[in-house]
């Protein structure tokens, strides 16, 4: 007999507005090319070229184009931004690209050739061209063959660090969906019952995969996608930082949920909560108290002007004070305290020992201390915050409790 | 007052087995490095290197590693495959990588540097190195600086064309989920009611976004992800080939659903159906008859040894015979007849005029003729087929009807 299907993931999606949609009700996303223009001036360069496909996040930021899975090009020169798009995506490119020109001439030619033609159309046919360091090698070679000297620039990655209001709107919205996903999983765990060495729910044994499908169903109901990032682990697999496989949910063990969906305009959310069904109050209780204290210590440091490494050091000091290792071994606090979030799930700034940059107002970062024991489990708590001049604002709030509750 | 939430997308998910999961019950995915070894021999090269992140599909195929969103490297030399993975992903890399060696030494160094070190560890420190043409430029430069001459190879893309049984199992499974998603949308359209210039369902006006969320909820319930590819258009937006925005569903207009989810092991599904609520039997009826005939004509050609272009030409001839333009203007049949599907949604072979390659047994291709009128709508029917020695096998079957039905 086939197992019966699980209950409605949209039970938890009450409030999802079926008519609200691809962020079309929010202020339009612009991209300020001013920092590119300034970089060209400073470096004595004639233009900037990026080449990639829909999975290239710099290109998504520069063009807002949710293009195809083959290479296209963005060109900035003589104060003008140009998108070289496939002809079959012409309408979509014109709808999405905030820059000046969509070129579909030469489509079918390699993206590097098309970029050189777009430069030529602006009267630029030689000199220093700035490119991201990871530009596809074939495109780089074609640009060199067209007479340009290439130098790499991190200007786009830098420009992405500080978020505009329209970006914050999107980050808040996708984070709200992520929090609803966590609420669904927490409600399931609250209803779960210990039965020997398994937790059962809805008439059958509960697994990380059943939880994941329920969370992802809620994300879908809110118009965002799970993006392959819905991490659910239990016990030892909760100590495996990116576990997306199948495991049983067992009583007394930590259930770690890390939910990082992507919204329709490309911005990510990111939240982690940890629960235990029928906790005996051992390792996981001590770990939870320590991680909550580290979270508080890290958040207390967030403000414009603070070195990113300071945030990490404060979190690590708190975990060490609670008796957990912070030396990068395979147990204790094994990762950094956080990372920037935008059109990439992981971007600048990094809240880590090597994060020597100062935080700026408008940085959006995760704060996610955690401790792990490969034999026992893992506890991580993660929130998303925007840095302000004198502190921070959480992008969405969600309660913390090792014991799961139905938050209704 | 907030609109009430939409009904349970898992109504249509009956049969989704909550315990079946990340394809762990299927035969393990191997990757045959034999074609790489043969290419090295034929070209007199000492090794092969690929560098990319989790969004690089060649790398996914070579490593089976669902790695991080930053660059890592794959190296094949001296008959051995090596994955240079981030230390934080060590467990995951060892679990997923079917090759010989996972290296986490030098982690933190640029991927190109790590690849050169892995080559050196195999006693390879100079000579011709084969790389994909789109290898990141910085990695290419670092390999050149380490003493290698780079030449590009399409060997990986070529190796991916013919699917092994374990790959077909995954393609069938993700396609089954995609078909359940279409069934959900069709059931909603069957229950939809014409009300003036809108179609209403579940007490409110129906939109492309409500349909998309319902489809994506079903995909989530089946353990696959929508991957941002759930295209739903109505009328003129159905003629916009990749519409993922918000539009009303209107009576008498074509509703086009193109569902291309990705399964846990990275393989895609791809199916399109077109419906109309309360069709008056005009353009859309003629278009539907023509597209069905073109589909039949294209499928009839599928077999090992047939030039890919022949399949396209037969579909185009059928559409032309039905009075539709096939000359690449913005109306009529404006795209190719199909494309390969695997760990990329679009890969070789291409069923198009330029597709001069012969089909091989084990190719998995879409067959998706369609006709469009930018003012009126679009009709497309798409199925996924594996080519066999004497014909083809559909990877999942789904009924065809312009009038939507509840398929229960």
TrEMBL record, chains A, B:
| Compositional bias per record (Low complexity), positions renumbered to this chain | 1-18
Q: Where is this region: Disordered?
A: 1-27
Record keywords: Iron included? no
Its keywords, alphabetically, are: Aminopeptidase, Hydrolase, Metal-binding, Protease
GO MF terms, alphabetically ordered = aminopeptidase activity; metal ion binding
Coiled-coil stretches, from where to where?
A: none
Q: Where is the Peptidase M24 domain?
A: 170-389
Q: Matching Pfam families, A to Z? A: Peptidase_M24
Q: Which PANTHER family match?
A: AMINOPEPTIDASE, XAA-PRO AMINOPEPTIDASE P-RELATED
Q: Which family does it belong to?
A: Belongs to the peptidase M24B family.
Q: What is the recorded name of this protein?
A: Xaa-pro aminopeptidase
């Amino acid at each position: 007999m086939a197992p019966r299907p699980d209950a409605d993931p949209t039970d938890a999606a009450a409030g999802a507005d079926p008519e609200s949609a691809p962020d079309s009700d929010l202020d339009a996303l612009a991209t300020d090319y001013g920092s590119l223009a300034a970089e060209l001036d400073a470096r004595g360069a004639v233009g900037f070229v990026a080449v990639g496909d829909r999975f290239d996040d710099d290109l998504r930021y520069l063009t807002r184009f949710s293009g195809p899975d083959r290479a296209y090009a963005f060109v900035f020169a003589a104060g003008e931004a140009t998108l070289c798009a496939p002809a079959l995506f012409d309408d979509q490119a014109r709808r999405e690209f905030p820059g000046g020109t969509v070129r579909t001439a030469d489509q079918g030619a390699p993206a590097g050739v098309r970029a050189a033609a777009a430069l030529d159309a602006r009267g630029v046919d030689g000199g220093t061209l700035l490119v991201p360091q990871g530009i596809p090698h074939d495109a780089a070679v074609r640009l060199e063959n067209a007479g340009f000297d290439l130098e790499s620039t991190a200007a786009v990655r830098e420009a992405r660090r500080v978020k505009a209001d329209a970006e914050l709107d999107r980050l808040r919205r996708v984070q709200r969906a992520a929090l609803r996903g966590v609420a669904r999983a927490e409600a399931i765990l609250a209803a779960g019952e210990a039965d020997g060495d398994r937790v059962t729910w809805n008439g059958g044994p509960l697994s990380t995969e059943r939880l994941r499908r329920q969370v992802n169903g809620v994300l879908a109901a809110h118009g965002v996608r799970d993006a392959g990032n819905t991490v659910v682990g239990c016990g030892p697999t909760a100590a495996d930082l990116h576990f997306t496989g199948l495991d049983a949910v067992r009583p007394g063990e930590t259930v770690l949920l890390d939910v990082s969906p992507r919204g329709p305009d490309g911005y990510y959310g990111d939240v982690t909560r940890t629960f235990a069904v029928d906790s005996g109050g051992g390792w996981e209780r001590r770990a939870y108290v320590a991680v909550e204290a580290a979270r508080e210590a890290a958040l207390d440091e967030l403000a414009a002007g603070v070195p990113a490494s300071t945030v990490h050091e404060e979190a690590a000091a708190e975990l060490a004070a609670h008796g957990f290792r912070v030396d990068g071994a395979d147990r204790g606090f094994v990762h950094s305290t956080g990372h920037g979030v935008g059109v990439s799930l992981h971007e600048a700034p990094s809240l880590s020992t090597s994060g020597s940059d100062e935080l700026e107002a408008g940085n959006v970062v995760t704060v996610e201390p955690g401790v792990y024991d490969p034999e026992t489990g893992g506890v991580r708590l993660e929130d998303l915050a925007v840095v302000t001049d004198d502190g921070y604002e959480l992008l969405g709030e969600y309660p913390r409790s090792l014991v799961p509750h139905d938050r209704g």
